Structures are given as structure tokens and as C-alpha cells.
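job 3f2a | input accepted
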Amino acid sequence: MSKQSSLLIGLAYVGFAIAFRFFSFFPFVIDHDESTYLVIANELLNGQHYWLDIFDTKPIGIFLLYAVFIKIAGHSIFFLRLLTAIWIGITASLIHDIQKQWCPDGPAAWLAGMFYLGMISLFTFYGVSPNTEIYFSSLAILAIWLVFRWPRQWWSFLLAGFSIGVALIIKQAVLFDAIALGLFLLWRIFNKKEKMGRKLLQLGSMTAMSLIPLLMIMLWYIRLDALDVFIDHQFFLPGRYLENAHRSFTWALIPDFFIRYFLITILAVVTVTRLSMKKVPVTAFYLLWLFLALLAALMPKNNFGHYVISMIPALALLAGLVWHPDTVLPGWLSWLKIPRVGYAILGVFLVLNAGLQYKDYVANEDPQHQAYELIQASGIQDPVVYTGTSNFQVLYFLLDIRPPIAYPHPSLIFDDRFRTVLEIDTLKEYRKVVAAQPDFCFFDLTSDPGMFTDLLSESYQVIDTLGKTVVYQRILPD
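job 3f2a | predicted structure (478 res):
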């Protein structure tokens, strides 16, 4: 494939990614985790230090990534989401090229990329809202692309290892993707039995290179004289998190995923049952990758849709293999080979997806946007805001103001599980809020303000209710 053709394919995927996700660029908040990434990233850009001045449970990588995004897009939610769409479009083009190595002819490669775009752009908490899984999964895909595209080059293995390493400082779950790739490469080395020493060294160099980003972060914390903090939060905090997992966890997360993407699941099943893994060994790799990503989704024991995002690439690639020349389709699926059917399905998906996203993200009220306008209209210069139990922490980012406490995500203070995991002194954080004398406070109607109850009743008045969130303004002395 020429460089010009690759560029055009990449631009096409980016264009479709933007089209699929366009209406999701408008609301200030889709999922409040993204708001936390923005707030902490902005604080890092303002000179604060993660795990010393401001806290969350995730590794530092996602906040560093969003700091780069903010440098590019500023404080515009629209352009930040556009960057994510471009990222997803580029990932789809990598998926296309991975599949192209095994299916050089026919639509299998193109469709694998389109399946990925469609799946990750359809459901709010399964990819439309930017989350860590989107980014670390893409970096794992980059690593796979590098070693599949240039299997004989040392530099491709080194870059692949570094890509996995960057993903590792975003979320440790990428280890499961890395294990899938490593096991497949080992199988190929021992199966072919040629230049085994060289190939094993390449694999070892990739593994060693994956540690470099983590070591760079560790050295940074050593310079801050905070190595103990880094070790505890990077390595021991995830264990404490797992020990305090939600007891409401159910196994429904997995069947929900496969039913939610029922048509793609059916195509993947057809591939597995109709395509010889001996002829196309990558099928076994996709299955292994899917299985290990499933384990990664189950380990935290939380029923969060975004955990299964890392399963989407493997399922999309499996489904795309239905169009491999050696896949013998049953008669009732022969219509899949007709190109105009695919174009019709794509057209229907674009229209349907656009309609649903417009309804969800544009036509509905945006309470965080209303809160932002309310604060701006107050005329208060440099307002102090505390978002309490609400999911309005994006206001810190939009107003470019510092949170009065070190834990901007509301669950860290108001959820017993996170207080235990992070060993938070809630009384100390409460005193920080009192000392800051916020001009505005935001508390969810459905949750108890806890120790803030007396403060709100004595020093604040309700000025509005936005959705399920009560807006309080400080009562000024006469």
C-alpha cells in the first residue's frame, strides 16, 4: 500500500470518527471521570504535583495526556472531544492496517476499522464518553501494529514496548493486552523455529522498553523526594482498591457487552466457527486478546461499562475476518458479500447514531453549562467554588480555578470505599472548604451532604436547582 493510500484511509477514518461522535462534542459533561482528568491535568499545568497536592486513584498517565490535550485545545470542551475523535480515527486506521497484514484483499480490513468506530461511538458509557480504556487500548493497538507491520525490525519492537509502557502509566489493565501479544509472538517464534535467539531478544527488548515510562515517572518522584508516595500509589493502591470492590458487582457486565453488540458478536462467532485457525493463526490471537481483555474488565469488580471498551478492538477484528477469502459463509449469510448492503447499513447507522446523539447531548439540558453561566452572571471576580457531592467538578476546569480540596472527584470524599483506599482525613478536607469560604457550593439532591449539612444551613442559601443538583450561594454579611 502506498503512503498516499494509507494517508487517505487514515483521513477517511478520522472523518467518520468525527461524524459518528460530532454531537457528543457539545455537552460539558458526559461522564464525570473526564471532568476529573481535565481538572487534575489543569492543576499539573499550574504547578501542582499529582499524589502530593491533588489526588485520584488512577496512575498519572491519563492526566499527563490530558495536559497535552489542554495545551493543544485550551479550555474548550468541544475541541478536546474533537482531539479524542481524531485519536479514535487514527486507532481505527491502525486496526485496518493490522487486519490488512492478514487480509490484503477484500473489505475485511476496512470493515474491522469501521466496526471499531461504530462500537466505540454508539453508547454513552461504552466509548462515547472519553475514558482511560480508549487511550491505553489505542496504545496497545499501536504496539500490535508496529510488530505486525515490521516483524523483522528491532526499532519496531522497541517502539512497541515504549507504547505499552506509556499505556501502563495510564492504566495497569493494559498488561492483559501486552500478555496477549507476548504469548502470540512466543508461539510464532517456537512454531517457526527460525532465528529463535534473535526473535527472543527482540521480545525481551520490547518488554524492557515497556518499563522506561514508569521508570521516568519514578525518577521524577525521586527528585520530589516522594518515592514512597509513588510506590504506594502506583503499586499498592490498586490492591487496596480491589479489596474494597463494590459488593453489588454482578457478572451481567459481560453478557450485556455481547448482547449490546449482538450483530458484531454474531459475525465474530461465524469467524471462529468458519475460519481455520491453522490457515489464519491471527484468529487465535484475537480470541486470546478478547479473553484477556474480558478478565481485565472483570478484575475491578465494578459494573462500569467503560471497563469493557478494551474488548472492542479484538471483537471488531474477529468480526472483520468474516470477509477473509477462506471464511466459508453459511447460505443464510451470503448477502454479507454484497457491497451495497454494507453501504446501506453504514448510511442507516450514521443517521440513527446522529439522531440519538443529538437527542442525548444537544436537545437535553446541560446543567453544568447552566451552572457555569450562573457563576459567570454573578459578576464575582475569581469565584471560589466547591462542587461537593455533585458531578460538577468540570467547573474548576472551565473557570480555571483551584479546587478548595485535594480530591476533586466527589466519590473520593463521600464514598467510604475510596476514603479507606486513599486513607483520607475527611475532617481536614472539610476544614479546608470552610477556610476557603466558597461563593458557590453544589450538592446532589439524592445524597447526604454529611458534615457539610450545618455549614450549608448556617452560611448558604439555595439559589437554584439544576437537574438533581442544588446550587448554594454564600450569604454575605450585612
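job 3f2a | The longest strand covers residues 460-466.
job 3f2a | closed
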